[in-house]
Design brief:
Blueprint lengths: L3 E4 L4 E6 L8 E7 L4 E5 L3 E18 L2 E10 L9 E4 L4 E19 L7 E3 L12 E5 L7 E9 L6 E6 L4 H13 L5 E8 L1
Antiparallel strand pairs: 1-12, 2-3, 3-8, 4-8, 5-6, 5-7, 5-8, 7-9, 10-13, 11-12, 11-13
Length: about 200
């Protein structure tokens, strides 16, 4: 597998793909215990938060750019669709974990687009012209992209395999498809792609 990293669930935020390591995308996983909190600032980046399991209250923004709501509504990635939040540059956000805790995939890319923060429910899609990210689960991205990160999870295992593809080429697609089909049981795949 090209450029594979293994993530072992850890409390707090774990940086998996650091800034500049493989292009402009940054990636990590935030895991919070029940009722724990996490505060962050988006700085010069656009942020996508993808709820993998659990739920939280998400408080985004200050001044005129605010959004508040619930993010996440599934016990794990094999039950239902993800809830996603998009946070623009220079915006604060706070995650208040619910009674079951929360696990969130966090992706960032440099941006200065003037967009409003948005929190989407399961299955809802963002306006693709407003955000640099396209989030897809369990299928290859349909749109042409500049960069992509693929997170793959298998049930009944304590680790997550994270595959990074700085460019999606035919050879890499075949390798990803082959990996998904040769593994027994259910496979969950999350693609986070940056529009070219």
């Amino acid at each position: 597998m090209p450029n594979a990293n293994i993530y072992t669930p850890t409390e707090g935020y774990v940086d998996i793909l650091k800034p500049g390591a493989m292009g402009s995308l940054q990636f990590g996983i935030l895991s919070l215990a029940p009722n724990a909190t996490y505060f962050e600032h988006s700085e010069d980046t656009e942020v996508a938060l993808i709820a993998l399991s659990g739920d939280c209250t998400l408080l985004v923004g200050h001044n005129g750019n605010k959004a508040n709501g619930v993010l996440g509504e599934r016990p794990d990635v094999f039950h239902g669709e993800a809830c996603v939040a998009f946070i623009p540059h220079h915006t604060t956000y706070e995650v208040l974990a619910g009674g079951f805790g929360i696990e969130i995939a966090v992706c960032r890319t440099p941006s200065h687009a003037e967009t409003a923060a948005v929190i989407l429910g399961a299955g809802e899609a963002a306006d693709a012209t407003d955000w640099q990210f396209v989030i897809t689960e369990n299928r290859m991205p349909a749109r042409r992209v500049g960069e992509a990160i693929c997170l793959t999870r298998y049930p009944h295992e304590e680790s997550t395999t994270v595959l990074q593809f700085p460019r999606i080429g035919d050879g890499e697609k075949r390798e990803a498809d082959m990996m998904n089909h040769t593994r027994p049981g259910r496979v969950y795949t999350l693609w986070i792609t940056r529009v070219a």
